[in-house]
Amino acid sequence: MPKNVSRSALSFRTFGQSKCEPNAKDRREKPVNITKTLVGTDAQQPIMVIDAASNDPSLERKADDNLEYPTGLKLSLILISLCLSVFLVALDQTIIAPALGAITGEYNSTKDIGWYGSAYLLTGTALVPLYGKIYHIFHIKYTFIMAIALFELGSLISAVAPSSMAFIIGRAIAGLGNAGLFSGSAVILSYSLPLRKRPIMFGAFGGIWGIASVAGPLLGGAFTDNITWRWCFYINLFIGGGAVLVIFFYLRIPRVNNPDNQSTISRLLHLDLIGAGILIPGIIMLLLALQWGGVEYPWNDSRVIGLFVGAGVTTLIFVGVEKWQGDDGILPPRFFKERNVVCAMLFNFFFGASFFALVYYLSLYFQAIQGDTAVEAGIKLLPLLISSVISSVTSGGIISVTGLYNLVVLLGTAFMSIGIGLITTFNLTTPLSRWFGYQVITGLGTGVCFQIGLLVVQNILSQELVPQGTACVQFSQTLGGALFIAVAQTVFQNGLIDGIRQAEPQLDPTIFINSGASNIPKILDDLNQSNTLEHVLTAYMSGLRNTYYMSTAAAVAAFLVALGLDWKKIKKGATATKENAGQETDPNVIQIRKFNA
After folding, report:
1. Can you give the pLDDT at residue 180?
2. Which of 16, 184, 535, 565 is the most buried (most CB within 10 A)?
3. Which segments cross the bilayer (predicted)?
């Protein structure tokens, strides 16, 4: 190493400022090219040393291409394991639906049916931000394995559960692991592929999500009808086990986030457990209020109001704690000062809100209006999901080749908005050509949108901030989906109740709310009210249409947010500093930041 380069010059810390230079932030960074002798050779490799003592902490992405990415068989196995992990997350959200009847029948626990999904959703949403901090501080590889282990443990408990309560506990534990799986997959991908090649894999993630969403109801129905519903959870053990083995033996990630070799206790103290301890109960209270309001209890019930108030108070306290914690917080305030990060989070929020609410209530359209079973409804969703898979992979390839994502995402959100807008025209007699074609248009848009939030933050943030940035956008998407599904439930029920009261006031609307979507004709037969079927279905359609309006509005909001993204090109080589932004950098040059003693 050249004598004029101090050991501290080789620090890979991204943020810092010289304590000896109080006015350092007024200076500009000036790169100086020097060389170092590679170990075991006489070859000289250039190093770009950047005097970083002069700058405030920046979110600007530094060169991460000095990372040694895996290749060949090792890379293939890692990517396959990540795809399996994404498949697990998506599969577990849909495979349980056809099995709910058998589960409640075995446990005689119809009153607990809401908790079978809520327990998984609450823990899976609330812990996503904390996982971002854990991935940032602790070893990424073992954190990811821990997340899979929790997911597998929860699945095993649910599979062997002797009671409804044990089943709910298993679902909650599985949610604890689920919270770290998708964001962890995206973080590991950032250490496995150069940035320019990642869009293809992000596209594949979106495609796999679509495939799993289709396979879930089909597998769930097949297991329930032919073997036992418990295999809906046993299957996770085989898929997750394979992913763990590959990650454990083949993944190598440098310990770039613990340069000072801090002890485990010291790193735990930097987890912002105070912030997490405030945020997690706040999210749970908000989701419970939205799920219980108008269903379990009236909206003006003291329990629902108390949950909303509690969520609001904890949110205000959390904001104060995060401002106090600064960069040590699970949601660092400076993220919200960077327009692209804010836009990425908002984009994912509205996309998740639009897409997940649409898929849920589009399935109800086929079951209630067209009289299909859950499995048949899953098959009729294939146009949406297959077109989504195709557009996801194709757009990923286009972005990888061109390095541009802005135009692609604008076209994607436009297609999504138009497609869902057309779906709002569905009625009792919508022909195959329309429900098939409108889903294809929607899918061409949704496939593009799956990867954009992740791609934006990984394009602009330094490597050590990728875990937190990834968790932030994933949390936004999960929260958006959870909130809008809950709100859409209220909107749907209000439309159904109003429609039935106007057309058939002698009928009790709650009967149809508490029954399965495909049971409407049978219920009316039992009530000797078969002649009212068309009016009831019209009211049902009115409620569904209200949810489609919500999804359309959220898709339009995502389009508007996408307009706020900077037009940045994903670079093939190392990324330049602010002063050299827009210039290609020699990929053989390692950019590091120099910190004065």
Report:
1. 86
2. 184
3. 77-101, 113-132, 144-162, 168-193, 200-219, 231-251, 271-292, 304-321, 341-361, 381-401, 408-429, 435-457, 469-492, 547-565
Mean pLDDT of the chain: 76
CB 244 within 8 A of CB 153: no
Q: Is 575 helix (H, G, I), strand (E, B) or coil?
A: coil
**Residue 594 has which token pair?**
């120099």
Residue 572 CA to residue 279 CA, distance in Å, equals 38
pLDDT per residue over 288-312, tens digit each? 888 777 767 888 888 889 999 999 9
CATH no. for residue 449? Answer: 1.20.1250.20
Domain containing residue 256: 68-260
The pTM (predicted TM-score) of the whole model is 0.72
Task: Please report where in the chains the tokens 């009847």 appear, as a residue.
Answer: 101
Place of tokens 């509005």: 553
Q: How far apart are CA 361 and CA 369, in angstroms?
A: 11
Q: What Cα–Cα distance (Å) separates residue 75 from each residue in 19, 338, 570? A: 42, 33, 22
| Predicted confidence band of residue 257 (pLDDT cuts 50, 70, 90) | low
Query: 29 by DSSP, 3-state: which?
Result: coil
Tell me the backbone φ, ψ of residue 297, rounded to 5 degrees: -140, 155
Same domain, 412 and 556: yes
d(CA 209, CA 195): 21
Residue-wise pLDDT tens digits, 240-256: 888 888 888 877 776 55
CA distance 17 to 23: 10
Do 320 and 546 form a contact (C-beta atoms < 8 A)? no
Q: What is d(CA 14, CA 29) in angstroms, rounded to the nearest whole number? A: 13
The whole-angstrom separation of Cα 549 and Cα 554 is 9
Please, are residues 396 and 202 in contact by the beta-carbon 8 Å criterion? Answer: yes
What pLDDT sits at residue 109? 67
What DSSP string describes 37-66? EPTTS--EEEEEEEEGGGS---------TT
pLDDT band at 579 (very low <50, low <70, confident <90, very high): very low
Check whether residue 187 and residue 314 sit in a common domain.
no
Q: What percent of the chain has pLDDT over 90?
A: 14
**Domain membership flag for residue 267:** no
In the numeric block, the tokens 């989504």 are attached to 388
Angle at 184 between CA 85 and CA 141, to 5 degrees: 95
Question: 552: part of which helix (H) or strand (E)?
Answer: helix 533-562
* Sheet order of strands, 31-37 included: 31-37, 44-51, 590-594
The bridge status of strand 44-51 relative to strand 31-37 is: antiparallel
